[in-house]
Specification:
This protein is α/β, with parallel strands linked by helices. It has eleven helices and 18 strands.
């Protein structure tokens, strides 16, 4: 072969590699991502190392933040379980979809099957879907995950303290020390079938993790959505043998540390299956922590004020981390207002799926997640609901309370208090008297939004009669 022929041959090889690289890049760019959504139950704002915890070791979550983005101003959609989950699944403020209270085993309502969930939206793009953990937006078959777009379900249908056994002592310290699950007769379901009662809560976090790993391995060749709503750290607290200590003062610490280990196992499995670089993982919580006399069974929302059940920041601002290698800037922080309702439209954007036909409240926050220069929150205002009542509005750094978190107090203009969260994150100093123009503007916008929402609210699903 002559020198000129060798040069031509080399050029052909280089061209071939260039075409192959370009083709591969196009395929990768067009590939829809996998989604893993880890949803905690009653975890406080401060209960992760990167959010300020000095006592809880969370190396996996800390590393997830170092490889991804920490969200400092991310909100749940309610300060209690069921409404926050309904809002997450539908991209709506809870009153819009008719779920405004905590659901109990006696309830015959649930998330309306007519609503479009994240899973149902992604099914239109051929995603495999699984829900593993606590559902709590309807325990009857009509309302369970397999009737809301999930191919499979493994978990408990409501909170782990429900179905209490009469006459049984529910002392949290004693339950922890004795590892006694018997006071809570909670079922474990596989799809719609009860497979265990009471569920062994000592091993439930570990079993959720194993189910999640199995799902990832089985679906590594096609796009998937894994929804992993943990039962913990809702009380009563339990952990597996590896994390157990008989000291109940370490109960909450050990519970979070086991979940941190679970996060590490999930991320490890994504890497082992080769899908890590094409998977968006989100870690967040349904609301703030319990305020308990037995403090070691509840978390911390510091430096925020309040906790679960309240619309103070500690009740609804939750620790949130998002990670997607190469897509979300490593070690970044987002301080813009974002919320759980934004997850549905953002997933829809990334999966190229059509959004629900009904009105939703969430916005696409991918510009923020991807670190787009000068990206701002798509929310002019964020609204805090307690039950069916609007209790606060946030716009930028201003937060106006309506009714001051008193459930029985009517939302009257005479009960308005104003806080500047940039200067007063703990909501200690009411500055309403010196900022009446801001008070009036926020109150007017809050009432207008509430009127629109109530006018266009949709009913929950309901079972007329149980045989």
């Amino acid at each position: 072969m002559s020198k000129s022929q060798k040069i031509i041959q080399l050029h052909k090889i280089i061209l071939a590699f260039g075409i192959l690289f370009t083709f591969t890049t196009i395929i990768e760019a067009d590939k829809t991502p996998n989604f893993v959504l880890i949803f905690m139950d009653d975890q406080g704002y401060q209960d992760i190392g990167v959010f300020g915890s000095k006592s809880i070791r969370t190396p996996n979550l800390d590393n997830m933040a170092n490889e991804g983005m920490k969200f400092t101003d991310f909100y749940s959609l309610a300060a209690v379980c069921s409404p926050s989950r309904a809002g997450l699944m539908t991209g709506c403020y809870p009153p819009r979809v008719g779920i405004t209270k905590v659901l109990f085993p006696r309830d015959i309502i649930g998330l309306n099957p007519d609503e479009t969930t994240i899973a149902e939206m992604l099914k239109t793009k051929n995603y495999s879907t699984a829900a593993i953990g606590k559902w709590h937006i309807g325990h009857l078959p009509k309302f369970l995950p397999t009737n809301h777009g999930f191919d499979s379900y493994f978990g408990i249908p409501y909170s782990n303290d429900m179905d209490g056994v009469k006459g049984k002592n529910r002392n949290l310290d004693e339950a922890w020390i004795n590892r006694d699950i018997s006071p809570w007769n909670v079922p474990l379901l596989r799809n719609t079938k009860e497979i265990e009662r009471p569920v062994n809560q000592n091993s439930i976090t570990k079993r959720y993790t194993q189910e999640a790993q199995k799902f990832i391995r089985n679906n590594k060749s096609n796009p998937f959505f894994l929804y992993l709503p943990h039962s913990m750290p809702h009380i009563p607290l339990f952990v597996s043998d590896e994390f157990y200590t008989n000291n109940p003062k370490e109960a909450y610490i050990r519970t979070i540390e086991e979940i941190d280990h679970s996060v590490g196992q999930i991320l490890k499995t994504l890497k082992e299956t080769g899908v890590d670089n094409n998977t968006l993982v989100i870690f967040t919580s349904d609301n703030g922590p319990w305020h308990l006399k037995l403090r070691h069974h509840g978390g911390s929302a510091l430096p925020l004020r309040g906790a679960k059940f309240s619309t103070w920041e500690g009740g609804m601002r939750v620790p949130t981390i998002m990670r997607w290698p190469g897509k979300i800037p490593a070690g970044s922080v987002c301080k813009e207002i974002t919320a759980a309702c934004d997850i549905l439209p953002t997933f829809g954007k990334l999966a190229k799926a059509e959004l629900p036909k009904y009105k939703i409240d969430g916005k696409n926050i991918w510009p923020l997640m991807s670190g787009e220069i000068n990206a701002k929150s798509p929310h002019a205002d964020f609204y805090y609901y307690r039950g069916n009542g609007l209790r606060a509005i946030r716009s930028g750094n201003w937060k106006l309370h309506i009714g001051n978190n008193n459930k029985k107090q009517k939302a009257k203009q005479s009960h308005l208090t104003l806080y500047n969260l940039a200067k007063d994150i703990s909501e200690k100093n009411d500055v309403a008297s010196t900022n009446q123009e801001i008070v009036n503007s926020l109150y007017k916008r809050a009432k207008a939004f509430d009127l629109e929402l109530k006018a266009n609210a949709r009913p929950p699903g309901k079972i007329e009669e149980i045989n």
